[in-house]
Description:
Elements: H1 2-8, H2 12-45, E1 55-64, E2 67-76, H3 81-98, E3 103-110, E4 127-131, E5 145-150, E6 164-166, H4 169-177, H5 188-210
Parallel strand pairs: 2-3
Antiparallel strand pairs: 1-2, 3-4, 4-5, 5-6
Amino acid sequence: MKAIFSRLRPSKRLVVILSAALSVSAASGGAAVYVGRDRLMARLAEPSPSGLECTTIRTLKLDHNGQRWVRMHVKTDRASGPDRLRTALRVVGALSQKEKADLYQIVVLDAAGPEERAAVRGAAIGAEVLFAPGPQSVRGMEEPFRASYNDGTANVSGMFHGKTVRLELDEVRALMSAMEDRSLCIDPSAATTEGAGADEAAEQTVESAEAPADH
């Protein structure tokens, strides 16, 4: 039995070779873990192709020379110019599925910016998208989309003082085709209206139950 174990005992040279191989394998595995983690972190750091969460300030439905125009003002918090634009494109796509109009306009403001209707202009606008399904019928719209954003960062008052960047139609289409989300912004007024409607319906139910039966 001792002789058998003697024959199975590996040589020093073989031990050195196996140890080196195991060391290389362990190092490669560790490198793979770090590379995988780096890729994951890089992917998480990438901007969402669908833009960011946003909140609706107001929705205006206008009758303009026999055409129906829908204008929506929304706000985002600490968003970059491209993120604001992606958000506006996502919202205009979702809005066009919900409301039928000749022209849609989405204006993105900063969370700290002015919310009054008259103040939504100039440096307050972080991004803007105009969409006309039939551009030939809307004056000034030669193409279905007009999209732009301010490349500056909002100051403490929510105003932008960078340069305006305008996108070409093929760039707009590429951004929209890459979107995974097609949702509108959060609308606080809609939630309030729904709550009021539910309360009113409940009150009507109670009144109907308490009302005397006709004879």
